[in-house]
From TrEMBL:
Gene3D superfamilies: Tetratricopeptide repeat domain. This is Pentatricopeptide repeat-containing protein. PANTHER family: PENTATRICOPEPTIDE REPEAT-CONTAINING PROTEIN 1, MITOCHONDRIAL, PENTATRICOPEPTIDE REPEAT-CONTAINING PROTEIN 2. It comes from Taxus chinensis (Chinese yew). PPR repeats lie at residues 239-273, 347-381, 382-416, 417-447, 452-486, 487-522. GO terms for molecular function: mRNA binding. It holds the Pfam family PPR_2. InterPro entries: Mito_RNA-Proc/Resp (IPR051240), PPR_rpt (IPR002885), TPR-like_helical_dom_sf (IPR011990). Keywords: Repeat.
Length: 550
């Protein structure tokens, strides 16, 4: 007989376990056996709606009739019940089948404006089946003020049949924090105190983290710090997220002394470095985006001091901000020395930014030093890095210093591009060193089957400037054979040099006709220059002829 009753109880417990997956949480079932098999085995499943996994503790097989086993067993829960008064606390079936009309009644009331006492009196008139899922559904309703939610939850806490759960506490915290209004956040903080005093374990770290995050986002730094320091009062343990949220908020508020104190606490709690690097990386990038490189630099140095590298993305943002916003490439170059060797291969952009800034500021020696460091220990410099230094040297009228860099590139299996040759040729050309420019041109022709229009234009301009129309026309003829498209500027310069320097109006007139044939429109000055040169040449010939006759 007792076995059949035990089987009935066992089936009820199994049914309770099966229905637990549909509730707003997980079900923790505890089954206790009595000391003697003549007594009926009873069970009391308890729905706690917590994050704890479903488990059965000390479950006793009802078919086991071993009296010694039952005699030695010590029940783990009190108030053993018999089948006659078998009961549920927050019954899982009731949680699943809560009345929709109950939710609708509460929502209709909460959408109206009430004084607290009037609201509680109105709620008291309703015959509600209070349970965690029903209250959770109410909290999901939009268009209800935070004050109404808090008043409703306080009223529910006063009802003897309702036992609050951490899940519901998390739900109301999320709802109010999403609204983000000042009065609601203040009420929520008071609610935390009330619940923590009367219901141990209901206020969770998750709820406090959500609240802290909203306070930081609402620029309520003082309150956020106070809540962070009150975890012990709420009997909650700070987790990694608690520290990271606080650290991030403090940094964005420029409270760096407090931020470094939080880092020290994290180290003592065993959460540092952990995920601090990724969180700090976001902070550094955000500060740089807000044009606050000095603050970002302070955080970076503190992390490095504690043995944490915030990542390449944060480093690149910081270097870029220090160079462009703070105009302190010297500080940025010091940061490059803190990059771990394994990360150097990904730091090319940071090195290039520093070199480019040094070159822009005419600090060529510093740029060359960084380039030498890259050659020795990495990262491997690319075309853009070399070209930045080559360009800076040529602008400083030191093209001779740039030539070894081309050789270095070739030795490192990095073929110099046409741009590098053009820059050096242009520098020699501006200095009037046309022979050196021609030597570089020959090297460019050896390196490339086809150079560029700009390459020829540099030589043509240089010879035109130095007053050598024959050489200029020589490279012009070679340019036409190479198949590049000619432009108006080249024709005008060649016409001018032949008309003025060489007084060769025949060549100038020929170039003028060719220019018009290709669709380029000569300026009035160019046309007049050719006509004047032709007239002068004819007058000179006539004068010579007159002298011969005389």
């Amino acid at each position: 007989m007792w076995r059949s009753k035990a089987g009935l109880i066992f089936r009820k417990v199994s049914s309770a376990i099966n229905t637990s997956s549909t509730c707003a949480g997980t079900t923790r079932v505890q089954v206790a056996a009595i000391k003697h098999p003549n007594q009926v085995i009873s069970a009391k499943p308890i729905c706690l709606y917590s994050s704890a996994p479903l488990c059965v503790e000390n479950f006793v097989n009802p078919n086991d009739s071993n009296e010694e086993h039952y005699g030695s067993y010590k029940p783990q829960i009190e108030n053993i019940v018999t089948p006659g008064n078998f009961e549920y606390r927050d019954n899982p079936k009731k949680c699943k089948e809560y009345a929709e009309e109950d939710v609708e009644k509460v929502v209709r009331i909460l959408k109206k404006e009430w004084e607290v006492q009037e609201l509680e009196a109105e709620l008291q008139t309703l015959d509600l089946n209070l349970n965690s899922k029903m209250i959770g559904q109410v909290f999901k309703t939009p268009d209800i003020e935070s004050e109404q939610f808090v008043s409703f939850f306080r009223w529910a806490l006063k009802q003897p049949e309702y036992v609050p759960s951490s899940g519901v506490m998390n739900a109301i915290t999320t709802t109010i924090c999403c609204k983000g209004r000042g009065e609601g956040l203040g009420l929520l903080r008071n609610l935390f105190r009330e619940v923590a005093e009367n219901h141990k374990g209901v206020v969770t770290t998750t709820a406090l983290d959500t609240f802290i995050d909203r306070l930081w986002r609402s620029k309520r730094e003082k309150e956020a710090l106070e809540v962070f320091q009150q975890f012990d009062e709420f009997e909650c343990k700070r987790g990694p997220k608690s520290y990271l949220l606080t650290f991030s908020g403090i940094c964005m508020a420029s409270m760096f002394d407090e931020a470094f104190a939080v880092l020290e606490e994290m180290k003592k709690a065993g959460y540092f470095p952990g995920n601090v690097g990724s969180a700090a990386s976001k902070i550094i990038k955000e500060l740089c985006k807000s044009k606050r490189p000095k603050e970002a630099h302070m955080i970076y140095l503190k992390l490095i001091e504690n043995g944490t590298f915030p990542g390449i993305a944060a480093l690149i943002s910081l270097v870029d901000s220090l160079c462009k916003v703070a105009a302190t490439p010297d500080v940025a170059s010091e940061i490059l020395g803190t990059i771990p060797s394994r990360e150097r291969v990904n730091a090319l952009k940071a090195y290039f930014t520093v070199i480019r800034t040094f070159c822009h500021n005419h600090q060529i020696e510093e740029a060359k030093a960084i380039l030498s460091e890259m050659v020795e220990i990495g990262p491997r410099p690319d075309h853009a890095t070399y070209n930045a230094v080559v360009t800076a040297l040529c602008k400083a009228e030191e093209p001779e210093e740039a030539m070894p860099l081309l050789e270095q590139m070739s030795s490192r299996r990095l073929k110099p591009d046409v741009y590098a040759y053009n820059v050096i040729m242009a520098s020699f050309s501006r200095a009037g060193k046309m022979q050196e420019a021609c030597d570089v041109f020959l090297k460019a022709k050896q390196a490339f089957r086809k150079t560029s229009l700009i390459t020829y234009k540099i030589l043509i301009d240089g010879f035109c400037r130095s007053g050598d129309p024959k050489k200029a026309y020589q490279y012009f003829s070679e340019l036409k054979k190479s198949g590049f498209s000619l432009n108006r500027d080249i024709y005008i310069k060649l016409i001018s040099v032949h008309a003025i320097q060489g007084l060769d109006w025949h060549r100038a007139e020929e170039l003028l006709r060719e220019m018009k044939k290709k669709g380029f429109r000569p300026s009035l000055h160019t046309q007049s220059l050719v006509d004047a040169t032709k007239k002068l040449k004819e007058e000179a010939l006539q004068a010579e002829a007159g002298q011969v006759q005389a």
